[in-house]
Design brief:
heterodimer; A: 226 residues; alpha/beta; Rossmann fold; six-stranded mixed beta sheet; 10 strands; 34% helix; globular; B: 409 residues; alpha+beta; twelve-stranded mixed beta sheet; 13 helices; elongated
Chain lengths: 226, 409
């Protein structure tokens, strides 16, 4: 198993009010799974995504990622795990606006100390894989939305992570482009990547192999997609 | 760690916000330029002074009514005007001090025009009314013709000894000896020409001089002006002992009661250098102080712009953290930026300061120097300023929560 979550609780302090964003979540995801997390806004899916992505830590409970106990790690240790184990794809792409596509893809490699020449090579390969080799020296504002998201996917793949976390990856795209992006995810999963996708669109979720539904911080349904 | 990448980011950022970076770094530039300019000029002065401060001949000292360099001295007490020095004092010293060899009084008039036929000196020259001792005491040598004699003084003769600059201007193709020049509206006969002297430490030519008898000078210009008295010590006699003797005579002549200060000043080449150094160190201190204030203001500017930058780039920080940048990496990134910004400012200021020193120095005819310690210390100071100004903004960036940073609009 790749992800094992046990009795996960996350409580936010909003002024004097305590908000229970995650209420006792138990979850196991194996390698090479293709999972969609669904739920209305406020259901806790973003919080779960942040914790699984090591951007946040739970208030209590256990989280084991790739045989590694992740809870109670320091910020720098979390940064190291994000770099090595997780590739993020965001709804708003989150590319560095002034850097070229190539440099954006290189970014995770810079932070794990890959030498410059090797960085170039790996990043170019990834851009080729998402079909953007000819756009390597373009900046994000010179690319279409779909192209930007493909750059982001190339960046997510560049460190060969154990898990790809996609937060509403088609949310800012028209349906045709969204379909193209989903096609890439489907191919990646077929190639052996584990993908966890957060979405509120049934159409998108239906393309995955397993759907986990959240409501009020609790898993209300966890089923294989037929 | 990631030094190359961080420097690249820093340089890119400065390039993107050229105007903003320029304005921010300007404070630092001005501070460094001030210090470099003052230090470089003073160093140049110092070098030339140690080598060639020879306003006076060796074994010679001068008595003047006022302190030397009074104009520059800071925080001087208010003083009432002193009694003028009359040439009779030179006579008194001559008669009462057995340790002196030559005593001569001299009076100066600056910015005078001298004419010969249709030619006139331009720029203007300085005229000295002197006694014969003027020449040995001040280190002037007559090259052609003769010097001013005791008889010239006694008979109030209208005779003149010319410096080389004056000769070159008025007599380019003629022998000046025996010719008549026009000075203060009177005719003077040229009796001698001075050896070429070159410039003094303070950049003035010492060849644009016309020397006439002191009595003739006073006939034309009146007796209101104070004399300078130059004294040469007998060979082998202690300078200080001679000075003490001369001071004693002067105090008696000028009826200064015991316990009261001298109402005249005495200086030698050494005391000139000393008082110059005294002023130089005050100017240097003032310069460094002004520079530091400017640096302080500049560093506040750097800090401010770094805080703005960090806020503006919150999302970028979030992205970098999400893909694995550690705290220390983000800290270093923004520290590098702040250090590069203030170092570039410092570098510009340094070049500006040296350029200004070279221009001003050349017009003052002092050698242009680049003191290495000033270069090194300004680079160190600007780096430290960069680090100090960047520390707080950079640590704010480093401590950002990645989730909030990613959501920042």
């Amino acid at each position: 198993m790749l992800i094992h979550v046990e009795n996960l609780i996350k409580i936010y302090q909003l002024g004097k009010v305590q908000v229970k964003a995650l209420d006792n979540i138990n979850l196991t995801i194996d390698r090479n799974e293709y999972v969609a997390v669904m739920g209305p806004s406020g259901s806790g899916k973003s919080t779960l995504m942040n914790i699984i992505g090591c951007l946040d830590v739970p208030t209590s409970g256990r989280y084991i990622l790739n045989d590694q106990d992740v809870h109670n790690l320091t910020d720098d240790e979390l940064a190291h795990i994000r770099n090595k184990e997780i590739g993020f794809v965001f709804q708003t792409f989150n590319l560095l606006p002034r850097a070229t596509a190539l440099h954006n893809v290189e970014l995770p490699l810079i932070y794990n100390g890959t030498p410059r020449s090797k960085r170039r090579e790996i990043a170019m390969n990834m851009l080729e894989r998402v079909g953007l080799a000819d756009r390597a020296n373009h900046r994000p504002n010179e690319l279409s939305g779909g192209q930007r998201q493909r750059v982001a996917i190339a960046r997510a793949l560049v460190n060969n992570p154990s898990l790809i976390l996609a937060d509403e990856p088609t949310g800012n795209l028209d349906s045709k482009t969204g379909e193209e992006i989903m096609q890439i995810f489907n191919e990646l999963n077929e190639a052996g990547n584990t993908i966890l996708l957060v979405t509120h669109e049934e159409d998108i979720a239906r393309q995955t192999k397993r759907i986990i539904r959240l409501l009020d911080g609790q898993v209300i349904k966890d089923e294989m997609n037929q | 760690m990631l030094i190359k990448e961080n420097l690249q980011i820093a340089i890119d950022q400065i390039r993107i916000g050229k105007l903003r970076s320029f304005l921010t770094a300007l404070g630092i530039s001005i501070g460094i330029a001030t210090v470099i300019f003052i230090v470089s000029i003073l160093e140049g002065y110092n070098q030339s002074i140690q080598k060639e401060l020879n306003v006076l001949g060796a074994n010679t000292f001068q008595i003047q009514r006022e302190e030397v360099f009074t104009g520059v001295q800071v925080g001087m007490r208010k003083k009432k005007p002193r009694k003028r020095l009359d040439k009779s004092l030179a006579k008194a010293i001559r008669e009462n001090c057995d340790l002196v060899q030559f005593v001569g009084a001299e009076i100066w008039e600056h910015s005078v025009n001298v004419k010969y036929k249709d030619k006139a000196t331009n720029p203007t020259i300085s005229v000295a009314g002197v006694e014969p001792e003027f020449f040995p005491n001040n280190g002037y040598f007559v090259d052609q013709g003769r010097s001013i004699t005791q008889d010239d003084v006694r008979f109030h003769r209208k005779v003149a000894v010319l410096g080389m600059d004056v000769v070159e201007e008025l007599f380019p193709f003629e022998d000046p000896l025996g010719k008549e020049i026009k000075l203060f509206g009177k005719r003077f006969r040229v009796i001698g020409i001075l050896e070429k002297m070159g410039s003094s430490t303070f950049g003035e030519s010492r060849d644009d001089r016309v020397i006439i008898p002191i009595t003739t000078f006073e006939d034309i210009k009146g007796k209101k002006r104070s004399c300078n008295i130059t004294v040469m010590v007998r060979p082998g006699v202690d300078m200080q002992a001679t000075m003490d003797q001369v001071i004693g005579v002067l105090r008696k002549e000028r009826k200064i009661p015991p316990g009261k200060e001298n109402d005249f000043s005495i200086f030698t080449n050494e005391t000139l250098i000393e008082s110059f150094n005294n002023i130089a160190s005050k100017v240097r201190l003032a310069g460094v102080f002004l520079g530091l204030i400017s640096l302080l203001v500049g560093s506040i500017g750097v800090m401010n712009i770094m805080l703005v930058t960090v806020t503006e780039r919150t999302r970028e920080i979030g992205i970098r953290k999400a893909v694995g940048a550690k705290r220390s990496v983000i800290l270093m990134q923004f520290l590098s930026e702040s250090v590069v910004l203030s170092s570039v400012g410092g570098l510009v200021g340094m070049i500006g300061g040296f350029l200004l020193a070279a221009i001003v120095g050349s017009s003052l005819q002092i050698p242009f120097t680049v003191p290495l310690w000033a270069v090194v210390s300004s680079l160190v100071v600007t780096s430290v300023v960069g680090i100090l100004a960047g520390l707080y903004p950079a640590s704010r960036a480093a401590n950002m929560d990645p989730i909030n940073a990613l959501r920042y609009e």
